[in-house]
Specification:
5-stranded mixed beta sheet, alpha/beta, single chain, about 150 residues, Immunoglobulin-like
Length: about 150
Amino acid sequence: MKLVSKMICSAVLFVGAASAASAKTCDLSIEGSDAMQFNKKELDGTGCTEVKLTLKHSGKLPKAAMGHNWILSATADKAKIVDAGTKAGPANGYTPTAPAIIARTKLLGGGESETITFKTDKMKKGGDYVFFCTFPGHVSMMSGKFKF
């Protein structure tokens, strides 16, 4: 009986170690500026089981004038999320809580930054994903592809 218990414990430890070894957290960063632009048009989360993303507002203008957030969704959901951001309004930082959002930051003003961490388990390898800012009028210039 002792031998069977030891074998079971060894198997559990091996499976746990294999799961931990396959987990991969990726550190990504992006900046939004007073010129209403992200400094990157593409971010790569390929092979990541979790993403740690930092958004930095590199400008000086306050969020009421030139706020930026970072939203990740399937490309097909982008338009409805942008609309929901407008409806959320300034009191909510133009940041919606739509279920189609995979990850999001809060609205930041000049000099601020935020780091978020999100799991990618609901994303499909090779799927069509996009990141963007929902501050009114920004999405046309502040949008990019998220590779996964």
